[in-house]
Amino acid sequence: MEEQKIKQDIAIGANIRRIRKEKKIKQVELVRLLQLEGVEMSRETLVKIERGKQHIRATQLRAIRDALGTTYDELLTER
């Protein structure tokens, strides 16, 4: 069964980028943290997600939430 993808109707990517920058975490650092947790992600994929060009998988969203030390509300709420 394929994992559920979350549509980028809301600014998930922009929120990920904003929170990541606020915490002074570079894209390569975030990708490395995700890979250490067993989540497949490349920097190119993260760039596409942050730009809203690619849907994000539920496991990726959960891992990003944990790596950034934030909440689903912060990631999913439009600003």
Please summarize what this structure is.
The chain is mainly alpha-helical and 79 residues long.
Topology:
Elements: E1 5-6, H1 12-22, H2 27-36, H3 43-50, E2 56-57, H4 58-68, H5 72-76
What are the main properties of this structure?
single chain; 5 helices
What can you see in these coordinates?
The structure is a single chain. With 79 residues, this protein is mainly alpha-helical. 57% of the residues lie in helices and 5% in strands. It has a two-stranded antiparallel sheet with strand order 1-2. The longest helix has 11 residues, at 12-22. The protein is globular, with a radius of gyration of 11 Å. The N and C termini lie far apart (34 Å).
Low-pLDDT runs of 5+ residues are none
**Share in helix:** 55-70%
The assigned structural class equals mainly alpha
What's the number of helices? 5
Order of helices and strands: EHHHEHH
Q: Cα distance, first to last residue?
A: 34 Å
Give the strand line-up of the largest sheet: 1-2
**Average pLDDT reading:** 90
Shape: globular
